[in-house]
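assembly run, all chains below
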Amino acid sequence: MAYAQAIFTNAAIYIIATMGLAIFTGYTGLFSLGHAAFMAIGGYTAAILTYFFKVPLLPALIAGVILSVLVSVIIGYPTLRVKLRSDYFAIATLGFGEAVKVLLENLEITQGARGLPGITKLADPFNTFLFMILTIWLCRNFLHSNYGRKIIAIGQDPVAAEMIGIRLLPNQMLSLAISAGFAGLSGGLLAHYITFIQPAIFNMDLSSLITAGVVCGGMGSLTGPFVAVALFIVIPELFRGLALWRLVMYGALLVVIINFRPKGLFGYEEINLNNAPKLFTIIGITVGLTVAASIYNEYASYWGRFPSVLAALAAAVAISFIVSYAGRWLSSALKPFSAKFSKSMSAFYARYVAAFQKAFTPTRRLEVQLNALKERLAVVRLDHSQPVLKIEHLSKKFGGVVAVNDLSFEVRPGEILGLIGPNGSGKTTVFNLISGVYPIDSGDILFEKKNLVGQPPTAIVLSGISRTFQNIRLFGSMTVLENVQTALHTASNYSLLEAFIQWPWSVNPMEQRQREQALELLKLVDLEEYADRVAKTLPYGLQRKLEIARALALNPRLLLLDEPAAGMNPKESLELVDLIARIHKLRNLTIILIEHHMDVVMNICERIVVINFGSKIAEGTPQEIQCNPAVLEAYLGDKVEVEEYAPLC
Amino acid sequence: MIFQTIITGLSIGSIYALMAVGYSLVFSVLNFSNFAHGAVITLGAYVAWAVMVNIFQLPFLPALLISMLGAGIIAFLVERIAYSSLRHRRAPSLYFMISAMGMAIALQNVLYATIGANLYALPPVFAQDSIQLGTAVISKMDLFAFGFSILAIALLTFILNFTRVGTAIRAASHDAEMVSVLGVNLDMLVAVLFLLAGALGGMAGVFMGVKYMVYPSMGWITNKAYIGAVIGGLGSLPGAIVGGILLGLVEALISVSTIGGVPLSTYRDVFSFGLLALLLIVRPTGLFGRHVEEKL
Amino acid sequence: MLLSVENLNVFYGEAVHALRDVSFQVDQGEIVSVIGANGAGKSTLMWTLIGLLRPKSGKITFGGKTMNAVPHQAVQGGMALVPERRRLFPNLTVRENLSLGAYLRHDRAKIAEDEAYVFSLFPILKERLGQYAGTLSGGQQQMVAIARGLMSRPKLLLLDEPSLGLAPVLVNQMFDSIQQIARQGTTILLVEQNALQSLKIANRAYVLEVGHIVREGTGQELLRDPSVQAAYLGVRQNKEEVLQNASAPPAA
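ok done. output:
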């Protein structure tokens, strides 16, 4: 019994570190190969405090967490700042892990390679499990907040995340810091549970264990890594003879999982009644193996090797099947109740939130924010005295190729301006320059008199220009609603602490209001019935609409639409024309539209700018453009033939 | 003294370069860091140990060739097991990296689990022979390793620039999909790529085994070769060579330096990684790397 | 019949159905054009024909053989693709680019013959053999791309947007060269945004719309088709007409 207790306590300690890593690696796709070093920092800090300075456990643990977080900031800032490829970041963290180990081996206070023996056993199964549950609760809360959604968004598509105003560096650093913090906590508990630490404990193997846990459990999930690491700790304990093969197994599992089931056990989902049978099957197999191992150990000497192996196998198979089927039966039996249950739960939750809100009047700050969110759908007040956007002598080269060449045009308040030109003429590059994706070689872009040149993309978005992409860039694994809700992050800034504990006076009303607002936006583009669908499973046309809704959530005054009708048939593109016209009217939006469907452009645009080879070749009303010889030549080739086949004017 | 250090640096640097070239070759075409390369190099050294010490007592040169061939085949098998299906599915490069890490962990620990953690020595090629050059004493083995590495890299450069397959590899480093559209069998091309990378890695493994020892975690050293490749600019062949040799020189200098009486050799690896961090901050594409802008 | 495609269905990911039941054929010696808007699936069609994309269902028969989505088999069988945006190897010389076009061939004498042929089509390339492809002008790069395609001595040349990014005067030259290549006996399947020019030189043509083939006919027929004129030649139409044309049943 004491043995089982030790195994499970160990598992709980590693699960704490794994939950943290799931927040970082699982959602950002960046690998921290030196994560054991954060555990080492937390472990040594806490151990030294209780060992030499007789500090109680809790403050010692907190000190360890704080130091881990600080170090992660020092490591994270330079490496994350340059938007490193994920493999460069991995090798940098590997080096960090090595550096910490070398340091611990050579410092006096850590007693070098000998380590710290005889740490007081302050961690026990009870407080360890409490910490584990606390960790899971905090991580879950974090992910269900604006802070969490920002990190999830970055992991799914960093470019799209920047284009809805999410800054990469601070958010990636935050997620690294959180994972480092939990690693520090885990290290502190480990030190006070096993009562002896030395640098060699915090080696590559430990980092590999929790990394393998996150990948095999499923990136983008907390449930998965939890289950995976629990299995990784428990199963090898049953087969002590195979201890040497443990790491071989982790490695092989990584290869197998990523090749055959890249989403792992629970990728991008948490436990629910639909996937519970899967969990039961896993538990069944584990319990079956446990029983099998003990049968073999107990009876091998009495029954002989072969019969006991047979008995063990039979028991394993039987137990696996029984537990697995029991789980399947139980989850299907519970399903009818689950709807009712979740309904009454949410009713209870709403009452609880309402009671809190009644007891405390909302703070001024919150009220302001809630109202700001409401104004998201307000009409834009147009200032007709000046152009909304003024582009002056804009140029951009890629290598030796001129993509945009001395381009000037302006966008008038409240108009829909068509930007057209043959494929490869530089239209999308113009959008990329306006939204700050590429730096500008020369020229100016003035948005409401403010020069955008040199501003980072996120600042440009937040100043009121949002866009859609030619190749749709949604957050594919989020639901339709979450895609829009993520873009509403700018309206609210409850603190990180509030997010971690889901503070009912700020987080709850804000979340609720955001959901309402997101639904409102979905209604605008006729997507409300798809709110709970995973975005990447939507048909093409609807994905485009969702992208427009997400862009609108940023409350833009200027909207850049990059070929919204691409891949649509004439009927769908006409519907889209209606949608764009509706949005335009409803909110007084100024819009620049890149489009190839001439019927779309001609039907909706008040003015058109035509570019070819990055230069403007014509500008005017649709009628003027249609008869412009330069435009006809650019599009159709010879002028004479144009007369013959396309009598336009 | 400084001359001696430079020679030592060049010798270890050329071995780094051999390994770094393997990282760069694979990266240039498949666009991921093959973290399993270290394990392949280690296995190459074990092949040498098997044919020179454990099973047969072959002389050095045939053993070197067999190790190169063995490591090449292992690298090819690693590709087949860990990457080829990802390649056919056009999986994101993150998946390749995870698969590579898994392969590295698994292979290294297979050695622990089967052969054990013992350190084995490879027989010295030139006994304790060394040459006196002014004040410097240069071991013949160092010179030999340096010469052979340069020769191998020259051969590789020839293959890449003057053969059909080589031209196709260079083209694939820019646009592998287009190469396959021209009728090149990508599976074959990638097999050749891994054979080449593995063979050079095997050679490096043997030199390391002679210089130090053969043991399961000797692949750790290859992380520094990877740093060399990154310093030079991953995917660039001259970059890998320059980066590897540069790193060897820096390490040799640090090993003999002291600050306030404290020798820096303990912190040598920390310096290497520090150099990497510094470079990535100043010039993330490395010395010879090219910067690719994403198309939106 | 050189190429026949039956009920081809191609998907991207789970949700995007890029080609839907596409069927068409190309006869020996023809120039066949496929026109359509961006995102209609034109390039997808080309990548599927050369074997880089695996169709979910459908059959591609080329020269009497069923194709299995393996590019080197398609090339061996006699197809060559000149892709959109050219996709030259900028780090290789023009000579090396051309030699990769003949990668699967070993008949040195005939390769030299074909080299002479592409130089007769594009004389300027002969002067640029040693130059890196990345340093050429856009028009010259397009010539190298087509020449590279011809170096495998294809029976069927797939041309994806050869006029893209070319100045109007070069566009006309490019279409002249395409006709010249066809006269030498190479069958051509041409995908173009420049509907007017490509319909003019085409024996037959298809209109691709959101993955469907919605019209087919001779080049001249389609040039006079009002819905084609509206969608691809810029002729103004009112909303009702568009809807009417859209709901008209596609030609069989």
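Chain B has a mean pLDDT of 90.

Residues 2-219 of chain B form one domain.

not gonna interpret more than that til we talk
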